[in-house]
Structures are given as C-alpha cells and as structure tokens.
Amino acid sequence: MVTQTCDLVERLKTIPDHRRQCLNLKHRLEDILLLGFCGTLAGCDDFVEIADWATDNTDFFRSFLELPNGIPSHDTFNRTFTTVKTATLQAVLLPWLLERRGLPGDWVHVDGKTMRRTRRNSKGLGALHVVSAWAGQTGFTLGQVAVEAKSNEITAIPQLLELLDLRQKIVTIDAMGCQKEIARTIVEGGGDFILSTKDNQPTLHAEIQAAFAAVKTPRPRLRERTRRKTGITAATNAAPCRYCQRPNICRPPSWRRGWACLPWSWWSGS
C-alpha cells in the first residue's frame, strides 16, 4: 500500500512508454525504471541481481510504488531498458541528482574506467570505456559519458562536465585530463580544479617542479625540539639571551656551570 510520495517517480512518469500497449503489459514504466535505478545505487551489476535485490525489499518499495503485479523479472528489466533512450533517461535523472549536489566546496571526482565483460571479440567490438563523475561527499555518480571507439577521455571529459553543475565545486582529474580546454570548462562552470601532471607533459611537469624548488620553506617560528642526550626541550626563534643578547638557546640557570650561550645547531644536532 502506497503511504508516501516520491518526487523521482513523478519525474519518471514524463518519459514516454514505447512498449506495445496490450493486456500482457503488467508493470508500469516508472516502476521498472526506479527499481533499476535504485538497484544500481545499491551495487547490483546486472538485471538478475536487480530483480533479486528488489524482491528482497518489496515491502519498502510498496510504500511509494504501486507494483500491481509485484517485482518484474530480470527479462522484463532487460527488455524495458533496451527501449529507453539513454539521453531521455539522463534528462530526468541528472537534474534530480544535481538538486542533491551537496554543499559548496564538495568534491567531484572525474575518472575513466573500462567496463568489465563488455568486449565482444566475435563481433569485433572492444570493451566499453566510460568517463564518470562521482560526488565524494554524497557517494552519488552524477553522470557518465561513453568514450567513442576512435577517441579517448580528453574528448569525453568536456562533454561530461557540461552536464554537471560545477558551481562552488572542486573537480579532481588525473593526468589524462590535464588540458587547457578542460580547465577552461571547469572555470566557466564556476568551479575549481585539481589536475594531476605526469611525464606525459614533460615541459609543464618540469616547470611545476622548478616552481616548487624555487620556493624557500620558512623555518617554523615556534617548534619544540628535544635534545636526546640531556632531555632538555628548547624552542626555536626564542627571545634573545638576557646576558649575551644573541638569538641563541641558552642553558637554564639550574645547571651547575651557570649560563652558557649555545647556538641552535648544538640543540638540533646539525
């Protein structure tokens, strides 16, 4: 029995149903799409796992889905998702996901992966490679774009970024995405970026290394160091000695020999 409403269900009702309308049509399109979407978020790898997982959680889904004939079979999931266009489904799911985009300053991780068991040698088809955007704080996959057979991630990443709301987000990409066009797309979308650099761009890599090497690291103003032999703790950049007026570290007056001014190198062991 339906006891609550779901905004995503109402949005899925806007997707046209291209199935043949007949007496054998037992399951509503929005029910099938929502079950498949939730099963994917739950970690299911195929339609068999989605059907089994949905069956185990039937009571939960009946609280906001009608399910007049129960949970669909895995064959019904397979046939239905084959008829739905990917662009149409993304047009409904992406805005719903982006409304849950999190807080300003959240991370969006972009990376490409090859899908397991997608190669078809008999048909001359290589493995499917997709580029995904994953929200680190919420754990949502915000979008995916398939990489064309004769292309690479460099052309697919801008297409994926244009689908996302990057305002006040921090986008991280590996060395493959360290490109001027990709960085420009992120900045124009209102986000910030962290791009990795490797030897695939030797000139840029060398310039970054030289820039960091040229920066002088200042010595911390206050830091305690302990001399192991004496067990005495001293602080760097301390006030000048009241006897010699030098910015050195002096022995405490409790020592038998009285005051003795020593440079910091004695205490640091250098």
Describe this entry's structure for a reader:
- The chain is α/β, with parallel strands linked by helices and 270 residues long.
- The protein folds into 3 domains: 7-97; 100-116 and 126-214, Nucleotidyltransferase, domain 5, CATH 3.30.420.10; 219-270, no CATH class.
- The chain is built from 10 helices and 9 strands.
- It has helices at residues 7-12, 29-41, 47-56, 58-61, 74-83, 86-98, 153-162, 180-188, 202-214, 264-268, and strands spanning 107-114, 129-135, 141-146, 170-173, 192-195, 224-226, 233-235, 249-250, 261-262.
- The strands form 3 sheets. It has a 5-stranded mixed sheet. A two-stranded antiparallel sheet has the order 6-7.
- The longest helix has 13 residues, at 29-41.
